[in-house]
Write a structure and sequence with these properties.
Number of strands: 20
Order of helices and strands: EEEHEEHEHHHEHEHEEHHEEEEEEEEHEE
Radius of gyration: 25 Å
Strand order of the largest sheet: 6-7-8-3-9-10
Shape: elongated
Distance between the termini: 31 Å
Helix content: 25-40%
Structural class: alpha+beta
Amino acid sequence: MSVSINNISKTFGAHKALDDINLKIESGELVALLGPSGSGKTSLLRIIAGLEAADQGSIFFENKDMTTITTKERKVGFVFQHYALFRHMSVFDNIAYGLRVRPRKSRPTKQEIKAKVEELLRLVKLEAYADRFPAQLSGGQRQRVALARALAVEPKLLLLDEPFGALDAKVRKDLRRWLRRLHDDFHITSIFVTHDQEEALDVADRIVVMNEGRIEQVGSPEEVYEHPKNPFVFDFLGNVNVFPGRLRLGKLSDGSFEIDAPDFVEVEESTDAVGYVRPHDIHIFREEISNEAVQARVVHLHKIGPIVRVELRRIDTNEFLEAEISKEQYRTLNLTVKDKVYVKPKQLRVFVPQDYSI
């Protein structure tokens, strides 16, 4: 089922939670609403679910206007961060609840409900836990029960609000993979809210990056990470190094450092600009190779795992930089703390002041 969000705005007192949001979600997509706290992502999800009313705009499911339709009539599945399971009910009864409270005309028989719940228990790998109560389950198991309960009513749209936010890192990673496989099997249109960049990049077909009630960028994980539209998206999606300076005739100058900015060769007047580069695109050399490298001192080495994180401090401006290099590169460079090295950014992306208001 496709979802169309048209000109949605929402204000809470003096706070503008959503500002003219327009978004089309295709049938069968798994879409992440990603942004910091207060960006409006949960407000948008609740408006899609019918749990909040927009001040203006409309919501369509397929070609049907759902703007004034109640939550119950929208027939969406909703999974909350803190599970919202019925503590006095067993796992089986929690999953069966949505089927048992249907109007008599559409309510399945007891045998049909039993068969459906058992099917879902197998799906979420909790067959042996049917008679247990939520307090007897781990956090990851409770969240799988919550997902099974949402799927029991066979929704055409599944909404998830920070579904793994209360879980530890390893459980979150396992459940992310499980959700992806589940979505691929069921092909339910799914929208989930998260502030975790890794989670969105790992799971979603498309990512909607939100900030201060507006959409900054929509695209595949690769698009938003590799081709961010503005500084906010670049900075929010992973670690960055920042090179603030002056831009003129295709050159960005920052302290003793100067680097090509080919997209700005026509800029004749010197103007403020900022260069952004990811840590894995910082190259380290023992000797000066060009004026596109800047001298820095190694201040910390984090050598756990296949990647070595190198923290550096620029000698000309005293600003910190972070690089990620392979263990092989680390051994070749033979780095130690306090070493002086030369750092050259690769894949530098330059933004001028007007980019900050996109």
